Amino acid sequence: MTVTLKPVERDDVKPLFNIKVSEDQTSYVAANEFSLAQASYETGATPLVIWSDDTRVGFMMVIDMREHKYRESHHEPDVIYLWRLMIGREYQGMGYGKSAMSALFDYTKKQGLSVIESSVVQGNAGALKFYETLGFELTGEIEEEELCIRKHL
Fold first, then answer.
1. What's the CA gap between 48 and 85, in Å, rounded?
2. Residues 63-99: pLDDT tens digits?
3. Which residues, listed in sequence order, are joined to residue 55 by a DSSP beta bridge?
4. What are phi and psi of 80, to 5 degrees?
């Protein structure tokens, strides 16, 4: 399995609309349609398709905080912020999320950065455990009722 991240292109939009999480996960991550609509209005945001060979298996969106006009005082400027990560329900539990994160680590380094920040919805123990196994740590901060996490590469 080869997993890559590629910027969303025109031909990716409709297929991304069809990639969904399971019903019990919908309160943890925004639908791809919503995320793609937001992307144009957040400075520094880059929507990415998660590809496994020639199959779209998920969606990721990051913000380069050096370019983010709306950065809050507690956000460090020299980080990649993982804003969205979703793996389609039919691809979950197969290692795509972990592989996508490995690709994000490489992407972050290529941007000349060494820190990734994100957040996890409180009560989403599965996601928190996933990020912790990848080396993310809780920062102790809570933003919009989400637990803030950080990883130094």
1. 10
2. 999 999 988 777 788 999 999 999 999 999 999 999 9
3. 52
4. -100, 130
| Dihedral sign, Cα of residue 81, residue 119, residue 21, residue 33 | negative
Tally Cβ neighbours within 10 Å of residue 68: 17
CB-based contact 77:65 (threshold 8 Å): yes
DSSP 49-65: EEEETTEEEEEEEEEET
CA distances from 93 to 32, 89, 141 (A): 20, 9, 29
69-90 per-residue burial string, b: 16 or more CB within 10 A, e: under 16? eebeeebeeebbbbbbbbbbee
Residue pair 150/134 in contact by the 8 Å Cβ criterion? no
Mean pLDDT of 13-27: 95
Contacts of 2 (CB under 8 A, 6+ apart): 52, 53
